Automatic annotation (TrEMBL):
Region described as Disordered: 250-286
Biased composition (Acidic residues): 250-259
Organism from which the protein derives: Streptomyces botrytidirepellens
UniProt xrefs under InterPro entries: TPR-like_helical_dom_sf
Highest taxon in the source lineage: Bacteria
Protein name per Swiss-Prot or TrEMBL: Tetratricopeptide TPR_4
Amino acid sequence: MKRLPIPEDVTGDEIDKDVRQELLSLPKTLAEDVAKNLVMVAKLLDEDPERAYQYSRVALRLASRVAAVREAAGFASYAVAKYSEALAEFRAARRMTGNNDLWPVMADCERGMGRPERALAMAGEPEVQKLDRAGQVEMRLVAAGARRDMGQADAAVVTLQSPELASNSVQPWTARLRYAYADALLAVGREDEAREWFAKALEADQGGTTDASDRLAELDGVEFVDALDADEVADASEAVEVAKVAEVAEADDVAEEAADTAAAEATDDDAVDAADSTSSERGDAS
């Protein structure tokens, strides 16, 4: 089996105590190896999901009968849009634990596989009632997404309306719920309300999990220029200034040349006049 490099500072002790408890069923050396790979999955899942997926496959080959490993493999597959694999891993983890916590993400996998109607059906199953409040909010988000996938934009707006949305208290899910509602409102042309809810999402988004600020700016017609673009704009402005200076210099040269020409012509005219005058005087003298 091909192993992946593990940094020296990764010991495996970083994993959650519940996961560590599950790994006690394995021989010590194997448990340590699996733990290290799971730590790498967690560390890389957001910044390098492809790499996290590779570590999850190693852990899966080492300990496929451990529920935490199947769950980690599921999330790693989900992060790289391998929804069929993710669903299979989540189902396996759920069979092992009997826990319904993965129900919303399983439904979202159905959406990812192009089966929003199945995701919507899952939102109406008894398992949803067994979820905690955070899980029920997550299920509501998935159901609203499924409605939009099916072209039911107005129904998506209604799906998101809930006590959690109306609450003024800020919970871990608040920013995402408000953001989803704002986006759903915008999809049905309710722009003023959408702006209000994007602002509310931004207010609750302490961790920067959404791009609510960008969406607000977009609605307000504000354009952001990144550092690279700013440099390009500066270069372009400098080029314009150089061109303007060149044009002015060229105009000055043309004007100076014209003045010289005019002066020369004036001198020639004076010379001609002087010659004519001299001739006239000679004629008079004769």
